[in-house]
Amino acid sequence: MRTKTSIRVVGCHAEGEIGDVIVGGVLPPAGRTMMEKMITMERDHDHIRRMLICEPRGSVARHVNLLVPSTREDCVAGAIIMEPTEYPPMSGSNTICVATVLLETGMVPMREPETRFKLDMPGGVIEVRAECKDGKCLSITFRNAPAFAHSLDANIEVEGLGTLKVDIAYGGMFYAIVDASALGFSVTADEARELAVAGEKVRRAAREQLDVVHPQFDNVRGVSIVQFAMPFQGPGKVTRNTCIVSPGRSDRSPTGTGTSARMAVLQARGQMKEGEMLIHESIIGSRFTGKILELTEVAGRKAIVPQITGRAWITGEHNYYLDPTDPYPQGYVLSDTWGTSTSVTQ
Fold it and tell me: How far apart are CA 65 and CA 97, in angstroms?
């Protein structure tokens, strides 16, 4: 066997959403902060993402997270999140996977019944609390970076759907939140393809028609993901949703940053208060529990500090090789499996 690349990956999923973790074979990118490292990774080393997420080694259903040394003394590790079309500053399901892998592989010492530590993520420092028993992470709870409603009831023109009202909110990336029931959806598994197609139409329209920029990160701009939200059932009750990950598929988990964004909108509308919880259910029935820990501000904009609780499971380990004669070093995508398009960027 010949190889010019050898990458070790621990497989993991959080409530059904794949968030595999690179634990060897890739050197950390340059940068003074984790955000700078993320930007360098995207600019100079994107072949790693394409190699592991595109066929023949990966799939559109996969995310990969690169573990790197923290840029801060108060964090045990850093992570750069890589998704099918982007590098988001933060992801809830991926954070839960990273925390679980760090603990269950012994990279971070596990203390029972509870282990606490911080992660250095591009979108900010994330405080983690893991419930542990018999060497297993029973659940991961993390304090997310602040989430905020950017605009409520924004009108966009969407191909085939007409004029839609969407709420734009940040929970780790920018979301366009759509009333699923108003479009005739119930967010059930049999609707997955229709939701994916509609979601990508909404995302493209929102990116073209709405100027959305994070007030603290000028590289974080534009709607990345669309959330089809069923009507809010009230604090502490189960509310269903699905988030359409570009290039067009439902997140299998309830989506941690999406739960954060939804709580920011609900708080802005007066439907949730500090200390109240949202039990978010995904299209496959898995759940995250969100909580508004406190109210805050982001560059003068009203915001919330969200907390998310969920679970993850390690699925195995794999070493990925790249033979010098392999004609697909960065993989390939086809429209029959790659969402609704063949785009690998937004």
Answer: 9
β-strands 17-24, 6-14: how paired? antiparallel
How far apart, in whole angstroms, are the C-alpha atoms of residue 89 and residue 144? 11
DSSP-assigned states of every residue in 11-69 = EEEETTEEEEEEEES-PPPP-SSHHHHHHHHHHH-HHHHHHHHSBTT--TTEEEEEEE-
**What domains does the chain contain, in order, with CATH numbers?**
6-143+313-321 (3.10.310.10), 148-309 (3.10.310.10)
- The model's pTM is 0.98
Nearest to 137, CA basis, from 97, 169, 165: 97
Q: Which residues lie across from 114 on neighbouring strands?
A: 131
* SS3 state of residue 214: coil
The residue type found at 314 is I
C-alpha–C-alpha distance, residues 48 and 7, integer Å: 9
pLDDT, tens only, 226-235: 999 999 999 9
Residues 192-204 have pLDDT tens digits of: 999 999 999 999 9
Catalytic residue numbers read 91
Question: What pLDDT shows up at residue 208?
Answer: 97
| DSSP-based three-state secondary structure for 91 | coil
